[in-house]
Amino acid sequence: MPIATKSDFINLSSEKKTEELAKKISKKLKLGHVVFFVGEMGVGKTTFIRYLINNFQKQNGLKITEVTSPTFNLLNEYQIKQIKINHYDLFRINNLDEIYNLGLFDDITNAITLIEWPQKIKPKPKNLIELNFEYGNDYKKRILKIKGLNL
To answer: How far does CA 42 lie from the centroid of its chain?
Structure first.
């Protein structure tokens, strides 16, 4: 698995590569971290999050649960022993006021916060890690650029 630096692009064209990188990143995440998942629909953001959360469950000896995108309910919460993970999907959010009404950052220091479609969030929070997913030329290839985290 390649080491990511600020400007590296990582090939995530296979689910196996996605799973391996999610596992590696899950070992680096701590309470208070906020992770932005940026990319077009279908590029692999929710799949990555599923592997990330499932790895936390495996590490803590818990049953693997289904992880889906909270597109309609906006938030899925996962309690993994002492770790709380808040998984937001802001696709249906229309403006900044709606984001503030969600209380997105009210309890940020006591959780790991994963946010799909974070483009409307201003200003960006501290402890931010950005995962930018992109399609390659043929839509079968997927690449990831990481900001804010060295592996």
So the answer is: 14
Which one-letter DSSP state was computed for residue 59?
Answer: H
d(CA 19, CA 79): 21
What CA–CA distance (Å, rounded) separates 13 from 67? 20
| The residue to which tokens 């990188």 are assigned | 21
Q: Is the dihedral of CA 36, 25, 87, 50 positive or negative?
A: positive
Helix (H, G, I), strand (E, B) or coil at 131: strand
b/e code 47-57 from CB counts within 10 Å (16+ = b):
bbbbbbbbbbb
Say what the pTM is. 0.91
Sorted by where each starts, the structural domains of the chain and their CATH numbers stand as 9-147 (3.40.50.300)
Q: How far apart are CA 133 and CA 147, in angstroms?
A: 12
Beta strands in 90-135 (DSSP E): 112-116, 128-135
Amino acid at 58: K
Question: pLDDT tens digit string along 102-141?
Answer: 888 888 899 999 999 999 898 888 889 999 999 988 888 9
3-state secondary structure of 129: strand
Q: At what angle do helices 45-59 and 15-26 cross, to 10 degrees?
A: 50
